Amino acid sequence: MSISVKEVTKIFGTQKALDKVSFNIDKGEIVGLLGPNGAGKSTMMKIITCYQTQTSGDVKVCGFNVLDAPLEIARRIGYLPENNPLYLDMYVKESLEFIGGVYHVSDLKAQVNKMIELTGLGKEQHKKVGTLSRGYRQRLGLAHALIHNPEVLVLDEPTSGLDPNQLVEIRNLITEIGKTKTVLLSTHIMQEVEAMCNRAIIIDAGKIKADDTIANLMQRSGGKGMETLFHQLTQH
Fold first, then answer.
1. pTM over 0.90
2. I want to staple 82 with a disulfide (CB 3.0 to 4.6 A). Which of 60, 102, 156, 199 is the partner?
3. Above 90 in pLDDT, residue 104?
């Protein structure tokens, strides 16, 4: 099992961001984590990637506990956060070499070239990161997350702010990556979930409202689509 989340609660002051959340994700699944703003999606992702600790409950990634073995998890997980932090004064290829060096990637030059080809950064590789369009910055963020060949990818709104052409390109890339890796992604675009994911988890106010295959969730919506079901489960 790639990701195991059991009875996870996260409290910030008086606010309960996550309330006894549990789910498992197996190798080879592409799972969409859906919910309104403030539902707890990013908090859950930060706990899985060891950037935050839960108040209670257990989380394991590739068999390692997030509290006991964060470095082991870092070796096995790739993370693209919502704000996609990049060094804007670096050149694209330089940026990839830097991140690869942090992970002690063997045969770094070959791996950098592989990531450039995989993410379609060839024409941009000699540009400064700060000059890239949002679409290419997302591609670079994905390349950073993949540079050390992780088993698990966690992507927080990877298609946010992209134009229709960029959406298709990034969607196709994530779908291709998902053939060999476990992918957990969040998005507000229901069509993206229907196109990319095998399964979706809908969360609202820190609690899971649904967790099922896309086919079953579509059937649950009465054939009206994920967007209709999402509104039904998250409107107060």
1. yes
2. 156
3. yes
